C-alpha cells in the first residue's frame, strides 16, 4: 500500500483513510507495479484528460446555470468587479514567473487545494438549486470533480508528496445554505455563484497547462528511483 | 561716444524689420478643417466687407462669382477644394489673409481587434478606420483589467498597433479595451471585452514542406515548424490541422494531429499534384490560426521504362478528358480504357503483359 510519509502520525492516518476510501471507489487508478515504468506519467495523463473532460462538461452546465440565475449573469459581456466575499474561492490567477517556476509539489498542491475547496462550494450550491434537472446535472459534475481530486491525490502520492492539510479549517460561512442568507442577499448570492463558476472554469484551463508541464517534467525514471527508495 | 553712422544703420534696419513684420503679421498661415458637403465662407482677415479683394486658390485667381463682398464663399465643398487660399488687397496686391483648407469627415466607428499569438507572453491590439477621413486622426487606446489600467505599448510598425505583456496568467477578470479616434471634425470610439483565453490565436505554422516518398506512389511526407512567435511550445503545446487535395478537385481532406510536426499522407492519388496547408491551435484554449502558405507536391512516380506501366498509360488516357473521375482505390487494370484510346494502340497480348506488370505494382 502507499505511504504518505515515513512516520505515520495521526493526521497522516486520516489522509491515509480518506485515500483508501477514495481509491476503493475508483478502481481505474493504475496499480503501482514496480515494473510499471510509466505509472506516474499515466496518472498525470489521466488527470490531464479529466480536466479537459470537466472543462467541456462545465461549459454546458455553466450556460444552463447562468440562464437559471437570469440577467445580467447570463450576458456575455457581464464583467462585474470582484468583491472580497468572493475571494474565499481560491483563485487560479497567478504571476507568470511564479507559475512557471513552481516546483512539481507546489504545482500539484495548488491544484489539489483549489479543487477540494471548489468541490465543497459546488456541493453547497447543489442543495439550493430549485430546478431538479439542474440539481441532477450539478450532482453529476460534482462526482466527476471528486474523481479529479482523487486523481490529483494519487499523482501526489505516487511521487511521494504529502497531501495538503484537510479542509477542516475552511468553513465557508456564506455557503451554509438558505438559512444563512436573507432575501436581501439574493443578488449577492447569485454573484457568488457566478464567480464560483468563473473560477472553476479558469482553474480547469489552468490545470490543463499545469498537467502539461508536469507531463514533460516527470520522467518515468524519477518515479522508479522513488519507488525503489521506499522499498517497493 | 556713440558713432553716428552705425546707429543710423541700426535705425534703418529696425524700420525695415518693422515694416516687414507689419506686412507679414496678417499672414499667419491658418489651417481650416471643413466637412465634406458643407458651405464654407472665408473672410479676408480684417478687411471690410465692401473692400476690393482678390482671392486665389493654390495661386490661381478665383472668379468673382464666388465672392460675397470680400468674403469667399465655397458651396458644397468636396476633396478638390482642399488647398491653399489667399486674399490680396485689390490695388496694392498686399497679402491680407492666407489659409489652408482641408476637406474631410469626422471619423466613423473604428474597427478594433485584440489577439494573443504569443501566449502566455501577452497580446496585441490593432485597429483601423472603416473609411478614410482625409484629414489627420489621433488614436488613443486604453486597456482596463478590472480596476487597473494597463499600458499598451505602441508598436513602431505597423503603426496602428500596440502590445501588452501579461503580468498575471489565468485571470478570471475580463480585459476591456477602448479605442478613441479624434480629428478636427469629431470623434468616435469602440470598446471590446474579452477573457484572456478567448483571444489566443497562434500564427500559422512555418516552413511547410511536402515531399514525395520514394517507391510510394500514394504517399506524401509533410513537415512543418511551430510558428516562431509562439514562445513556449514545450509548456504550451500546439496541435495541428492539415488539409490537402489534388489541384484538380475542390474537396479538401482533413487530418487533425495532436502532436508532432510531421505527417505522411498515405492516400494520395498517384501522379496528381497536391496542394497542402497546415493550421495550428493551442492544445486547450483559443482558436485555430489562419492556414499556412500552401505548398505543392506530387507523389513519386516511377521513371518511364521500355514497357509502359499502367500508371503512365492511365495518365495519357485521362489527360484529354475534361472531367476527372477518381480511379477506384483498389487498382484494377481497366483494359477497356487502355485498348479504347487512340493515343496508344496496344494489341491484346501486350495488354495482358501490361495487366501483369500493373498487378506487380499494386
UniProtKB/TrEMBL annotation, chain A:
Molecular-function GO term, any one: cytokine activity
InterPro entries: 4_helix_cytokine-like_core (IPR009079), PRF/CT (IPR010681)
GO biological process: cell surface receptor signaling pathway via JAK-STAT; positive regulation of B cell proliferation
Pfam families linked: PRF
Keywords from the UniProt entry: Cytokine, Glycoprotein, Secreted, Signal
Gene Ontology cellular component list: CNTFR-CLCF1 complex; CRLF-CLCF1 complex; extracellular space
Keyword Glycoprotein attributed: yes
Main localization (coarse): secreted
Compartments where located: Secreted
Subunit architecture: Forms a heteromeric complex with cardiotrophin-like cytokine CRLF1/CLF-1; the CRLF1-CLCF1 complex is a ligand for the ciliary neurotrophic factor receptor/CNTFR. The CRLF1-CLCF1 heterodimer binds SORL1 (via N-terminal ectodomain); within this complex, the interaction is mediated predominantly by the CRLF1 moiety. The tripartite signaling complex formed by CRLF1, CLCF1 and CNTFR also binds SORL1.
Similarity annotation: Belongs to the IL-6 superfamily.
Biological role stated in the UniProt entry: In complex with CRLF1, forms a heterodimeric neurotropic cytokine that plays a crucial role during neuronal development. Also stimulates B-cells. Binds to and activates the ILST/gp130 receptor.
Name under which the protein is recorded: Cardiotrophin-like cytokine factor 1
Source organism per UniProt: Chrysemys picta bellii (Western painted turtle)
Gene behind this protein: CLCF1
UniProtKB/TrEMBL annotation, chain B:
GO biological process terms held by the UniProt record: brainstem development; motor neuron apoptotic process; negative regulation of motor neuron apoptotic process; positive regulation of cell population proliferation; sex differentiation; skeletal muscle organ development
GO CC terms: apical plasma membrane; ciliary neurotrophic factor receptor complex; CNTFR-CLCF1 complex; external side of plasma membrane
Superkingdom as given in the UniProt entry: Eukaryota
Annotated Fibronectin type-III domain residues: 204-304
Keyword rRNA-binding tagged: no
Membrane topology: Lipid-anchor; GPI-anchor
Domain Ig-like per the UniProt entry, residue ranges: 37-87
Lipoprotein in keyword set: yes
Single Gene Ontology MF annotation: interleukin-11 receptor activity
Name the UniProt record assigns to this protein: Ciliary neurotrophic factor receptor subunit alpha
Origin species: Chrysemys picta bellii
Gene from which the chain derives: CNTFR
